[in-house]
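Q: Convert this sequence to structure tokens.
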Amino acid sequence: MSKFMYPKLAFQNIRKNKTSFFPFALAGIFMVAMFYMLHTISIQADDRLFMGARTMRKVLSFGLYVVGFLSVIVLFYTDRFLIKQRAKEFGLYSLLGMEKKHIAKVVKWELIYVGGAIITIGVGLGVLFSKLMFLLLLNIIGVKTNFAFRIVPSSIMVTAGLFGITMLVILVANAISVYRLKPIDLMQSSRAGECEPKAKWLLAVLGVISLGIGYYLAQTANNPVEAMGFFFIAVLCVIVGTYLLFLTGSIAILKLVKKSKKLYYHKKRFITISGMMYRMKQNAVGLANICILSTAVLVVLSSTVSLYTGIEDILDNIFKKNVIIEYLYERDRDEENSPSDWINEHHYDYDAVTSALEERAKTCDVQIQDMEQYYILSELVNIDGNEIHIENKDYERAAYINVITVDDYNRMKNTNYALEQGQVFLDTDVADLEHAERICITGCCYEVAEHKDLGVSLDRAYISSIGRSITMVVPSLDDLRVLRNAFTEEKNEYGSTDVQISICYYMMFNLSGSKDDKLAFVTELRDYINKTGIAHLSQIDDVFSMRPEVYGIYGGMFFIGLFLGGLFLVITVMIIYYKQLSEGYDDRERFQIMQKVGMGKREVKSVIRSQILQVFFLPLLLAMVHIGFAFKIIKDILHMMEFTNDTSFIASTIGTIGVFSLLYYITYMLTARTYYKITSQ
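A:
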């Protein structure tokens, strides 16, 4: 056979089988372009362009690995559909005298043509649209900058290398598939597995149990830390349960329906149920894949959309005020180890700090407003009835305690409360303490003078992750010292070595003025305050320098979410399309027989519509059920990321489900038309 015959025959095969090759090539081009764009954007997101670029680059790099891995998997998956669908064609070649090595060469040239087109066109489109995508990303994170976006040779090499190796491995796998099959197998492999499967009740029950465990874990996490720990276990259980239910549970249900004469012996339901029973095992894997991918689309998009639209809410949760200055209160320890003249000169002259801040504000043309100053003792604790200890980190009974003085509380809330020695005000969402008349903290017991909504939002370092908090008001700073010493002693007693728990002093305030002036004020503010000589300055946080970092993180996550959502959607459409294509060719002969024995075309079309509707929308409905049970655990994880606007998350989830359902329905309409054309030929 002429060596030019193989390329020519391969080209003719691609042209004649364009309904199979074109979607495969189109999806591959999309994946290559997407991978190239992510790679080149992650390289060109330079710190010199905008603040937060380094953080965003880390997020994009993570997304790049995910996109690359999923792209390789889906190319292998769809190629298996192509090979299986063309089994009869390969068998015909064999019967006409072509040897297996000749068939393998034809398949090789087909993949060279298709793979070359995928990589070339994909990289070309990636180069063409990469600048547009980068501008979209900058718009998402709210950055305006002038830059010269360039073609990155390393991105082209990495993209071409990854997908070139993928095509090479697919080529080897296809050759192995051809060499392993016998001529008779090549003619009949497209019909393999057509015997009616048996109902495996044990596996069906295991599927229900696995799904139940996943749902239970998603609903019973007591706090965001547990939610994060349970999430991956719950996802694994749900995936296993989904596959088992589609593989065995669906067959078991069909067996039960078949036993009902009233339900089964109807001309439409009889054909539909029989057809589903005939090869349900093959259907079930595809349906389970569609269900899991649909769930992934909904989870990724609803979460990332919520985080992006709630960035300002997240910043409000992190920052009670625009600027937060934290000192460590160590006066009593300094008194033990330092001369009095040093203490008087260097320690706790907050008037000097305030004067320095006002001087800098005047220089930067901003105004300091809403100043708050208070001492606070914060610690992660465990609750046992009305007793509080810190020696055991049992997260089921954990809470975060904030203790402040009544003088600071009165100054913050403009009140005039008084507390006797040994009395406290208590504000908590811990059930054991909500009505307690007495509370004991590491051996220090207090009478609860009043349970009240104190209306203060203090340190959120653990509150968002634990989900339970205690705010307590004590009579004086001496009480904070006593509790601090008790906490330190107990922590050291139970394994920690030389731990020094500190009382903190916070100065926090808002700024008014232009955006640039505010940013100028906080720039190098730490060095400016240090010039006052005040000791034990711990840290300075401000919303202005943090905002680009937060937008870089959550904006990058939203951008990656759009890419992953698009990728999952493409994979879902590909699976649906090839499933319908494969099913159509398998069903064509049966429907032809039905028409020959008297069933009209209208009845055939009605049966087809009924069968597709019942099978097609089952994965979407189950995906919605998965999302419903996963809502709580995802919400808890978002709380740990400081997103607490549950209403916004509900709206994002409903909106995502609505848009995805519309796209799913459009896919149904297109693939159902293709299925009908094939079966009616």
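The two ends are 34 Å apart (CA to CA).
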